[in-house]
Design a protein that fits this description.
492 residues, two-stranded parallel sheet, 4 strands, globular, transmembrane helix, MFS_trans_sf, PTR2_symporter_CS, membrane
């Protein structure tokens, strides 16, 4: 394929395809909107999923939290595969389009599955305390989980490619565009969090008070709109070719080099220099990726904390007094508290960009104010503070619950949980954006999607660790006839 090809669905050969009207902020704004739509769709499902599982599905809190964490972990780990496919085969543009279509299909099936939640389709039985517990049928559960994991598969191609494609619109060799790329990551995350804030506040109310069919259907319609906007911006985009590198092509190169090495050994001929050259570039890429592992492992504390707001934090909020005020009858949906993450992140991004960076730049001489690793480290330290505050609030909740009447809401306002959300939002600005920029910057040019998938894998492994901890604690607390830990979480 010649570099002058005009087909936007095919990757360009060589370096960036430059035209006066391509790339830069004009293209980036189209791509940021696509991410806003995708995050609205994703959080429209994930932010209140535990309420759906413990409600219409009849799951216990421990089982529901484990299921949500397993799904979130898969959704965050699969981008490693999606990025490899994009970098080595389809290209980022085509991967985004294909993933968007799959996303819309999954959300449509998810909305359809929620309409099956009728009393006739559920299996009900009496619990040990005399309450009737209803669980969905096997057919409904299978249909629901297939639809849910279809969304996870769609996200695996969409999430790493959209952000890498957006960063591609800024040329790292151009001083002006290079500085704009760092700003792009900040504004990217601001748009993402604005979308998540609206989703948590609006969709949790729709799902809890209107219906789950509409609650899952609206994200699908927003995702469709996002795809249309993305296609409208096609002629403004700057396209890159991976140059034959990437995960799959790298494996192919290694196999070809191994075969040549065997033929050389059998024939006693030369060619060693050629084989070494073929191995050299691949080996350097592998070593570069391996050097990222210590940083990746250090970030797992953040990944574990990231799994808590849509699971345990939401279930804890459900046990509290959720009225806006003492005389109000309106009940705040538990998942709506997640909107405080965005409420915190948006001003923090602005303060970081316009106050902290200029001040730090004058003090350090670093163009970005502080280094990427310093930014990540500050975010992880703030995560530790967030966990401490969350533990203190939970101790206060349990103390209040012991004095409350059985079955009644805990006499403690849900606003007690706001500080931990605000602190976590501030930590996000440092840790999340720092990881995005660091992993994008440190991988070879042909593996940019895979680099962003690495930061997502931190969230995936963090979710799996959280799921393991929940299941392990539940088993330990039930041992020898003890009180299940999930009953402590559910205490009212």
């Amino acid at each position: 394929m010649a570099s002058g090809s005009t087909d936007p669905l095919l990757p360009r050969a060589g370096a960036a395809r430059h035209r006066p009207a391509t790339g830069g902020w004009r293209s980036a704004l189209f791509i940021i909107w696509v991410e806003v739509a995708e995050r609205f769709a994703y959080y429209g499902v994930s932010s209140n999923l535990i309420s759906y599982l413990t409600g219409p599905f009849g799951e216990t809190t421990a089982a529901a939290a484990a299921a949500v964490n397993a799904w979130s972990g898969a959704a965050s780990m699969l981008p490693l595969l999606g990025a490899a496919v994009a970098d080595s085969w389809l290209g980022r543009y085509r991967t985004i389009v294909a993933s968007s279509v799959l996303y819309i299909t999954g959300l449509g099936l998810l909305a359809l599955s929620s309409t099956f939640s009728s009393p006739q389709s559920q299996q009900c039985s009496s619990s040990g305390d005399g309450r009737q517990v209803c669980r969905s049928s096997s057919v409904q559960r299978a249909f629901f989980y297939v639809s849910l994991y279809l969304v996870a598969i769609a996200q695996s191609g969409h999430k790493p490619c959209v952000q890498a494609f957006g960063a591609d619109q800024f040329d790292a060799t151009d001083p002006g565009e290079s500085s704009s790329r760092s700003t792009f990551f900040n504004w990217w995350y601001l748009g993402l969090c604005a979308s998540a804030t609206v989703t948590a506040a609006v969709m949790s109310y729709v799902q809890d008070n209107v219906g789950w069919g509409l609650g899952f259907g609206v994200p699908g319609m927003v995702m469709l709109l996002g795809l249309l906007v993305f296609l409208l911006g096609t002629r403004t985009y700057r396209f890159y070719d991976g140059g034959g590198s990437g995960a799959f092509s790298g494996v192919g190169e290694a196999v070809r080099a191994w075969r040549k090495s065997r033929r050389r050994g059998e024939g006693g001929g030369g060619g060693g220099a050629t084989v070494e050259a073929e191995h050299g570039e691949l080996a350097e890429e592998v070593r570069g990726m391996a050097r990222l592992f210590p940083i990746w492992a250090t970030c797992l504390l953040y990944g574990v904390l990231f799994a808590q707001p849509p699971t345990l934090f939401t279930k804890q909020a459900a046990t509290l007094d959720r009225r806006i005020g003492p005389s109000s009858s309106f009940q705040v949906p538990p998942a709506a508290l997640q909107s405080f993450l965005g409420v915190s992140i948006i001003p923090c991004v602005l303060l970081y960009e316009h106050v902290l960076v200029p001040a730090a730049r004058r003090a350090t001489g670093v163009a970005t104010g502080i280094t990427m690793l310093q930014r990540i480290g500050a975010g992880i330290a703030m995560c530790a503070v967030t966990l401490l505050v969350a533990a203190l609030v939970e101790m206060r909740r349990l103390s209040a619950a012991r004095d409350a009447d059985p079955g009644a809401a805990v006499p403690m306002s849900l606003w007690w949980m706001v500080p931990q959300y605000v602190l976590f939002g501030a930590a996000d600005v440092f840790a999340m954006v720092g990881m995005q920029e660091f992993f994008y910057d440190q991988v070879p040019g042909a593996l940019k999607s895979l680099g962003l998938a690495l930061y997502l894998s931190v969230l995936g492994v963090g979710s799996f660790i959280s799921s393991f901890l929940i299941s392990a604690i539940d088993v330990v607390t039930r041992r020898d006839g003890g009180t299940s830990w999930r009953k402590v979480v559910d205490v009212q």
